[in-house]
Specification:
It contains 9 helices and 17 strands. By secondary structure, it is an alpha/beta fold. It has 3 domains: about 90 residues, Elongation Factor Tu (Ef-tu), domain 3 (Beta Barrel), CATH 2.40.30; about 120 residues, Nucleotide-binding domain of ferredoxin-NADP reductase (FNR) module (Rossmann fold), CATH 3.40.50; about 70 residues, no CATH class. The strands form 4 sheets. A 7-stranded mixed beta sheet has the order 12-11-10-9-13-14-17, with helices on both faces. A 5-stranded antiparallel beta sheet has the order 5-6-2-1-7. It is globular, with a radius of gyration of 18 Å. The chain starts with a strand and ends in an 8-residue tail after the last helix. The C terminus is likely disordered.
Length: about 280
């Protein structure tokens, strides 16, 4: 059992939790993730390790369905029945002076923070573009500012920063900086749009994929994705891949397979608890 020692509401429907997991914290590196369960025999939820502090790991999640809603119900000192990790391949960052463009959308700010921090600590110049639907949903602004030489804010509704999408700013930023690589993390359509632009600009681009996962060892095949015409497994081969080689259309179709069932289950959950409005954020 893994104790939740701290919990914070970051934005409507988005939570930060600190979980006691000494063995995981000791081995965690930027880019690693864990798979957690909110209840016994519950659905497995993959979450990026945002940071490892002493014997605890920091996780950030958004309520999207029954499983994450159940996770949001837990209050310290509640315990998670299962936590597996660290999982995935932690990319190696070589010390240097090149500029990295980090592009984050929505909750993608959580997985991009440890990677941006790692680049910064290795001496790389980090320029970050952070986007969200509205000002209230912007995450980790101060922490991203600390590791970025420049931080550009975008909101869909214009309530903060640039009125528009993260993709609007990429050409202008790339003209002012000699970008060596791009890291994009966020909703699938956003990452696909970023990769379309960076391919035109000949900028190497890495994306972090959040696919369906069950066991976290590649045995179930639920997290498979086509990359450069080859089948890869997000849990063991990723979660980061060359964005210009990812079959975003195929992945989007796979992620939609269970959407109707998930929505039906979530509607039932909210009706049961009489919390339809508050969990919608």
């Amino acid at each position: 059992m893994f104790e939740i020692v701290d919990k914070e509401l970051l934005a409507p429907g988005i939570y930060r939790i600190l979980v006691k997991a000494p063995l995981v914290a000791a081995k965690a590196a930027p880019g690693h993730f864990v798979i957690v369960q909110a209840i016994e025999d519950g659905e497995r939820i993959p979450l990026t390790i945002v940071s490892a502090q002493d014997d605890c790991i920091e996780l950030i999640f958004q309520v999207m369905g029954v499983s994450t809603a159940l996770l949001a119900e837990l209050e310290p000192p509640a315990k998670l029945p299962a936590l597996l990790g660290p999982l995935g391949i932690a990319p190696e960052v070589s010390p240097g002076e090149g500029t990295v463009l980090c592009v984050a959308g929505g909750v993608g700010a959580a997985p991009i923070l440890p990677r941006a921090r790692d680049y910064h600590q290795k001496g790389r110049k980090v320029v970050t573009i952070l986007g969200a639907r509205s000002k209230e949903l912007l995450l980790l602004v101060d922490r991203l500012q600390e590791v970025s030489s420049e931080l550009h804010i975008c909101t869909d509704d214009g309530s903060a920063g640039h009125h528009g999408f993260v993709t609007d700013l990429i050409p202008e930023v790339s003209r002012r900086h000699k970008i060596e690589e791009v890291l994009a993390i966020g909703p699938l359509p956003m990452m696909a749009a970023v990769c379309k632009i960076t391919k035109q600009l000949s900028l190497p681009t890495t994306v972090s994929l959040n696919a369906l996962m069950v066991d976290g060892t590649g045995m179930c095949g639920a997290c498979r994705v086509a990359v450069g015409g080859e089948t890869k497994f997000t849990c063991v081969d990723g979660p980061e891949f060359d964005g210009h080689l990812v079959d975003f259309t195929g992945l989007a179709n796979r992620l939609c397979q269970y959407r109707e069932y998930e929505q039906t289950a979530y509607d039932g959950y909210r009706k049961e608890r009489g919390e339809c409005q508050c969990l919608n954020g």
